[in-house]
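Assemble and predict.
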Amino acid sequence: MRLDGRAFVLPVCLIILAEIGARAGGPSDSIAPPSEVLVAFVGALADGSLLLATRDTLASAFGGLAIGGAIGLALGILLGSVGALNRLMEVTLELIRPIPSVALAPVALVALGFGYRLEIAIVAYASTWPVLLLTRSAVAGVEPRLIEVAQALRLSFPARVAKIIVPAALPRIFVAFRLAAGFALIVAVTIEIAINPLGLGAGLMTAGQALRPELMLAYLLWIGIVGFALNILLVFAQQRLFGRAALVGDIR
Amino acid sequence: MNKGSCRAGEALIRFSKVDLSFSDRKILEAIDLEIMRGEIVCLVGPSGCGKTTALRIATGLLAPTGGGVAFDGAPILGPRRDVAIVFQDYGKALLPWRTAAGNVSLALEAVGTPRAERAARIDALLAKVGLPHHADKYPSQMSGGMQQRLQIARCLAQEPAALMMDEPFGALDAMTRQELQDEMLQIVRTTGATVLFVTHDLEEAIYVGDRVIGLLPHPGRIGIELKIDLPRPRDQIATREDPEFLRLRRELYEFIKSAER
C-alpha cells in the first residue's frame, strides 16, 4: 500500500480543528482536545493498563476465533462436500444464524459467569458463521473436474479433503478467516462494553463513567490502531502464504 | 504386433444393453460394445450423440439407468485405479498449486507408492511423456500440449490396464495434436494398455484406432463400426495418404453427414 502525502492533509486539519474547538468549548465530560487524549494515551501505555487490557481483549478474540474458526472450517468442509448433509442441516443453521452474538451475552453470563470463558464463547459463536459460510461455498465451488480426478484416483475422503479440496479452497478460506478475525475483535470489544469487566471495552467504559473523556478517547484511538494493525498483518500473511494460490483463486 | 498381454483376443470392457436417460430424455439406447485387451477403440459421432457420456459410464463416473458395463468380467460400480481417465480440459484436471512432479505424485500417493520410490518414478514418467526437464514447473507455466502430456503422465502413474481418453487432443493446435497422437500410440504400444478414445475428429479416429464406432444421435446408439486395418506403426504422412485411409475417411464422413440429418 503506497500512501500519498496529501492524504494526510484532511486528518491533520481535522485534528487541529478538534483541538481548537475542544479548547474553545471549555471543559467537557464527553470530548477532550487531541493533545490531552495523547497525554492520557501515553500515560495509559506507560502504566501498563492499556497493554494489559489489550492482552485480555486479544486473548479472548483469538481464543474465540480459534475455536469458532475450527468449528466453522470443519462444518464448512463437511457441508460443502457432502450435499445431502448440507440439505439436512440447512434449516437448522438458518434458524440459529440470525441470533445476534451479543444477544447471547445474558445467556452465556448465566452459564459461564464473568471472565474469559464468557467472552471466548460468544466470540467463537460469532466467528463460526463467516468461516462456515465462506468455507462451505468455497468447497462447493471447487472445480468439479478436480473432484472427478479425486474419484478416478479413488482417494479416500480424508485424502480428498487434504490433497484436493482444502488446497483448492484455501485462498477463499483464508479470506474467511480474515473476515472472522475482524468480527472477533468487534464482538470481543462489544461484549466487554456491554457486560464483561475485561479488556479494552471495559477500559473504555470505566474511563467514560469516571468522566475522563481524554482517557476514553485514548482507548478508542488504541482500539482503532489495534484493528488496523490486525488487518495489515492478515493481508500481509495472505500475500506471503498464498502468493501463487491466491493468484489461482483470482483467475477463476 | 505385441500388445504385452497373453490374454489378447478377450474382451476387457463389455457394454451390455447400456441405456441412459435423464428424466424422460434418452441419452443412450442399447449400447452393446466389446473392447478387446490391447485394442484402441475410437468413439465418434455428431455432437449430442452421447459419446462422452458412454465413456463416462465406462469409467464408472456415471451409472447407466439400464444394462451395465463389465471390466475384466466384473461389473463397473465406480472408478477403478487401473482405469485412467484423460480429460479434455487438462487445465481444469491438473492441480494448479502443485508442480508437474507434484501432479504426477498425486497418482502415486493414491496408489500408495512408498515415498522413497516416488522421485524416480516421477522422473521416469515425465521423461516418457517428453517433459524430462519440467518437473518443477507449475501447470500455469506450461503450454496446452505440455499440460496434456502432464495429465497423461499422471494417468500412466496409475499403471492402468485401460486408458479412457475424452477428446484428449481436441483443444490443441494441429501440429501439437499430431505429435501427441504419435506419442500416445507409442506409449500404448509399450504398455499394452487398452484404449477407449472419444473424438470428434474423424481422421484422428481412423489414424489412432484399431476400430472406429460411429454413434447416431437422439438417442445415442451405435450406427457404424469400422475395422481399421492400416499398418502400424502409423505415420502422419504415409498413413494419411494410404488409399484404405481415404476410403475409411469417406465412409465415416458419409455416415456422420447422414447421422446429422
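The two ends of chain B are 39 Å apart (CA to CA).
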